[in-house]
Structure formats: C-alpha cells, structure tokens
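Feature request, filed as a ticket because there's no other form

It would be nice if the structure record came with a short human-readable summary line next to the tokens. Right now we just get the raw output. Example of a typical job, pasted below so the devs can see what we mean:
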Amino acid sequence: MECDFYHEAQEGQEGKKEFITTCFFGVIIIFLFCCSPAYADRAERLAALEKRITAYTINKEYKDDTYALVVVKSALESIREGSGGIGACLVDSTTGEIVEYGRNRQHSPYFRSDLHAEMDLLNKYEDRVKKMNDPEDFNKTRECKNLVLVTSVEPCPMCLTRIINSGIKTVLYVVEDKEGGMVIRLDNLPPFWKEFAADREFRAADCSAELRQIAIDLFNFSSRGFAKNRVKKDGK
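Raw output as currently delivered:
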C-alpha cells in the first residue's frame, strides 16, 4: 500500500510538471504570436530606411550633406544595437576631415543614462586627446580649434551644456527636436550657461530635405513614451 501511495505521488508530481511545462510553452507561443507582427513591421521599416540611406547620393549643392549622411548612418547603427536613432561626428573645418564619430549607446551593452550621441562623441574625443589642465590658463583645456560638432538631431539640455563646457564653438544639427531640443530654447538657459554660450554658433546643417526626413524617421524609432503621463507620488 505504501508502494502504491508512493507511485501515485510520483505520478502526481510528473503530471504537475507536465502541466507547468505545457503552460510555459503556451505562454511563449502566445507571446510570439502577438509580438511577431510588431517585430516584423519594425524590421521592415528599418530595412526600408537602410535601403534609402544606402541608395542616397551626396548632393554637392548642400555643403553639409556629406556630414549629414555620416551621422544618419551612425544613427542607423545605434538602432541596430537597440539604442536611440541619433548619430554625431566631429569635423576639422580646416581640412574637412572627420576626426571622431559617436552615436547613442544608452541601451547597449547596458543602460547608461548619459550616453546620448553627443556625449559618446565627446567622451571618445576627450579620452583620446587627454588634454591636461594648465593652472595658469584654464581656457586652454577648452580650446577646440576649428572643430565643428555635427549631430543628426538638435542636442537636448544635457548634451548642449556638455558641448558648451567642452569649448566647441560650432554645432550643426540635421533636424530640430521641438519637444526636447535646447538650441531653440537657448534663452531659457541659466544665466551662467547662457553667458558661457555667447560666443558659440548653433544652426541647422545645410543638407538635403531627403536626409532631414531620414534623420527624423530614424529618430522616431526612439520612443519617448516612458516620459509621458508621469505624476508625483502624491498625485500632484
């Protein structure tokens, strides 16, 4: 009798395991069934964007077209890695040479709240050149002679203040960011930063309408839904 009870218990355990396994795989199948169309649509849209970028020919009528194409290519790479669709580069204006590349890396390989494209770009540049402080002239560390920063989307407040602090004098952006950009809100900077930025130039890049649209489409892969409908804990 004890033996029969043992076998019944064993069979009960096996049945429970089979039930749990079946439920698990059922949930996975339902998840894949529901999500596959969304993933397929995303992949299809991204492939179409990549095709547009690959097919694009630089228009010499626009003096910044070359750099605009470079930063949208970097933005595409960011999306492939699972981060936001923004790219940036540093250009030596005397030679036209690109001296550094950057792209949004917020979610690759892990979350970094600071790694917007412009931040990644300046991190790479400053880590490479390793400027040393001069106690007699603090401005020397911020000398960025002839460097122009080009970004696919207008810098946010965090990136703009970093750019100002870096010493870079000229910033070009392919498209405005009406909801999150800071360049179009320069007058709203705190007094110190507003004065610090007084000798800088911020303007839209001179590039084709097609590249602007590509930059917008890449940026729209980045969702800002996480910032919406936020309320304080007390409900205010």
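Something like this underneath would help us a lot:
Residues 23-35 have pLDDT under 50 and may be disordered.
The first helix runs from residue 2 to 55.
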